Amino acid sequence: MKVLICNPDENEARKMEALVKAFCKKTYMNLEPIVFYSPVDVAACSIRFDIAIIEVGMEDINGITLGKILTKSIPYIKLIYTSSQAKSLDDSFDVQAVRYYKRPYTEARFFAGLREAIRRVDNETICFDFKDDGAKVRICKNEIIYIEIENRKTRVVTRTNTYFSNHSMTFWKEHLHSVKFLIPHNSFLVNFDYILKYKRNQFVVMTNGDTISIARGKGPDFNGKYTAYKEFMR
Description:
Elements: E1 2-6, H1 10-27, E2 32-36, H2 39-44, E3 51-55, H3 63-73, E4 78-83, H4 89-94, E5 99-102, H5 107-124, E6 125-129, E7 136-140, E8 144-150, E9 153-158, E10 162-165, H6 169-175, E11 181-185, E12 188-191, E13 195-199, E14 203-206, E15 211-213, H7 219-232
Parallel strand pairs: 1-2, 1-3, 3-4, 4-5
Antiparallel strand pairs: 6-7, 8-9, 8-12, 9-10, 11-12, 13-14, 14-15
């Protein structure tokens, strides 16, 4: 996971970087802290951060505004704020911050917040292997349109890319257990949010234009769950 640290004070930034590294050493988790001193540089970069530790009081772009910019481009990112005062605490709730640390804070409290941020990221993203070179990919679960079994691998179709994964359909069923994912056919797992057209007991058309058949034996179950989901999401 990539952890953004944005603080114009180099000493504070390096202190947080050291805390993240100490956390990794203690927990054996693989986090990559990336330090920025300018919020303008962060807003302009293309790195897909998983967690952001941001100082509230910064010039040019304050921490709350930077958080809004980041969450717009990276929906699953989790925000942690730091400050010498608590006056922006209420504003941090607008961007659903995981924690707001008023200095001084203890190592134990910092670790607890980082652990919670990781837990929330894991609940909203999924990491998987590329079929060809084994490289790791992390994507937001909500960006997945559907998954298809194809020639002993799985094809993962998202809003912006298509990936080929080493993992079997069993892996995806276990990790995409939200009510919005359902199987219309043994070779497919679809996200209800991206169904553009639904023909009962026959097929669905996804928002990217792909048509997926509904297997004969799965029609009633699919229809019942899809109807219930639409009612739930109203």
